[in-house]
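Record pair follows.
FIRST:
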Amino acid sequence: MATIETIKQFEYFKNLSNEALEIFIKNLSTNVLKKNEVLVREKEPQNRIFLVESGELRRVKANPNNSTTSSSTSTTSEGIIVGHVKPFECCGLLHAFNVDPAFATIEVISEQATIFSIEATKFVELFNSNQTFSNAMFSSLALELRKQSKIVRTLQLQNSNQLQDSRLKICFFDSREWVVSSFQSELQKLSFDFVFKFVPEKLSIETASIANGFDVVCVFVNDFVGSEVVKALSSYGVKLIALRCAGFDNVDIEMAETLGITVVRVPAYSPYAVAEHAIAMLLALNRRLHKAYARTREGNFSLDGLLGFDFYGKTVGVIGTGKIGQCLVNICLGFGCRVICYDIFQAPCLLNREDVKYVDLDTLFRESHLISLHAPLTSSTHHMINNESIQKMRKGVFIVNTSRGGLVDTSALITAIESGHIGAAALDVYEGEKQYFFKDCSNETIADPILKKLLSFSNVLVTGHQAFFTQEALSNIANTTLNNIIDWQKGNHGRNHKNGVFKQ
């Protein structure tokens, strides 16, 4: 039951006379509400004035966009918190003279709350019949107007943040300085305004939550986007997986399509970069440039052990004749090599050339002096270089892999190197590279016994997945990735996207 002493603790009513307060109290009803109970709901008619004696309530405004908001404004899963009502505060005064929909939902957040209330019609009657009451209420209404103005300013700030948040948000995983600079540089050339977040972590089930609230994740070759990760990304609101590479063997395409997530890739960024790196590695191994460099720095100019052979007239086997493979074919022809190729999808531009010939895989293994791998990693190409295929190769063959590490059974490769059956191996990719590549491990002990063994051979050259790493390639990767995202934003989703990846 309300008392004069209790009501006088409310700012709006402290100046009322005891006589006016007695009349006011007679019209009050008392309610005790428990936690999460709602006093009034947004948009429902608010026809009562509430006085909170104890407990705490909050005002929650529905968020129509249900989007991530600025950290300066609190949110619940249902909406935006625009204010609180604490003991000896009132709400609903501005509705007294004009019953209209509630501005926000008011709900109890303490364990319980004791609330006095009066019908708006009764309040107006008191206002019109008692001069002392009406004078005090004019002062109180002025205070309430100032309070509501603060709430409006909070919402204006919130709306401003939502406008900012309406920009497409992209989270870049496995980001390095060169990723940041290349994408920011390309974004400046476009008329689109995106929100970028660059994180060094690789995408995995443990790090997927970083993408919470983002529309797009941009991933690289060593990010893991398996079925559980795809499910997690979907639950966080991700609608597009943008690969900044050509390969997509690290993504569960079928799960993404099932969940309505579009997957796009960069089918060609700079095929010249990868092809040139493959040739550079073969040349370095053949002419022992890595050994010569180390010798001459120590003043040793001996030629012993540095003997190579001419590329001219040798047979080069190219496995995979996409854009990169085609570039490598042209480079090898420039050296005067004989070029033979294998691909289940034969390139029309090579079919009618007299200086290039498609052969079956066994023939390529048997006749090639040098073999360059440019095939995608699929279930059918996994470990295509294995004990059986190596035995079909000529003794002393050179192998270069700038495609995917999983194409090569590394244990079989090591055995063949140790026996001398393979003359040299150039590896820009490695099946177990995720633990080491793209970071400085010079102060660590390489724990991977297979990688450690590879690095111990003088006729094996390993580079850290750098074949793509040229200025032109980085620019093209960023440009194509951003345009992939723009095309998706324009409505080209799933199988309608020109660079989309989906289950055949």
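SECOND:
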Amino acid sequence: MGCFSDVTIECTGVESSISTGLWSTKPGGSYVQVGYGKAEVVFPIVAVGVKEIDIYGIFRYANDYQRALDLVAKGLVNVKPLVTHRFAFQDAVKAFETTKAGSGIKIIIECDK
């Protein structure tokens, strides 16, 4: 890996992404864990110590959820481009396969069609 960041913000909570994020943080850098996956994960603790990385945890919804809803409701934030796929309910398996493949950002299963 040839490029290292001063600050890494990991938003998936996926174990492999956590490890990649820690490895890609430069010595003396900061790592912020925003996403939550499994309750316990394996990560490169020796690399964290040797590189002297500061790790921060953030509860991503604290004091932000209502504000985010207000911004969307007022039209100040356009979230529509985040929806990359829509599937009818009968195609739900295809929707999950698309998600598992890592395609798209937000995938919606429409139950009323």
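COMMENT: Residues 33 and 57 are 5 Å apart (CA to CA).
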